[in-house]
Every structure is written in C-alpha cells, then in structure tokens.
Design a protein that fits this description.
3-stranded antiparallel beta sheet
C-alpha cells in the first residue's frame, strides 16, 4: 500500500484543539491533541477518497508527493 507523508499542525483554541493539513487546506478539531490529529487523518482520508472518485488526483498530486517540505514560524506585528 502506498502512503503520502503530509503535515499536521495542531494548536490549542478555546477549550479544544484545531488541526490542519497545510498541503490540502483541510482542518478538523478535537478535545485533545491526539483526537484532533486522528480526526484530521480521517478527514484527509475521506478527501483523498473523494478526489480519486471524481478524478482530481492529478490536480493535487504535486502537493502530495513533494519531498521538499519545510515548516517555519513567522513573527508579525500584533
């Protein structure tokens, strides 16, 4: 089975946690970091299933297979 290695960013927000896959712009949430990550994984899997079903995989393949990924923090004025 083939796997895609994607990025999950999780942060605390108002009594829960928000999770986001930056490559696909998909977000989810949960009561714990683990739950938010698990819910995000499920959302991404459903997104990819639907993308395959409607023929969009070629359109998103670049962000799925790129090995050249970087994460960084940005500091901006408040």
């Amino acid at each position: 089975m083939k796997f895609f290695e994607l990025t999950a960013v999780v942060w605390k927000e108002d009594g829960g946690y928000v999770s986001k896959c930056s490559e696909l712009g998909i977000a989810s949430c949960g009561d714990t970091v683990q739950e938010a990550r698990s819910n995000l994984k499920e959302a991404v899997e459903l997104f990819l299933e639907n993308a395959k079903a409607i023929g969009l995989m070629d359109d998103i393949k670049g962000c799925l297979v790129s090995e050249d990924k970087y994460t960084a923090s940005l500091e901006v004025p408040a």
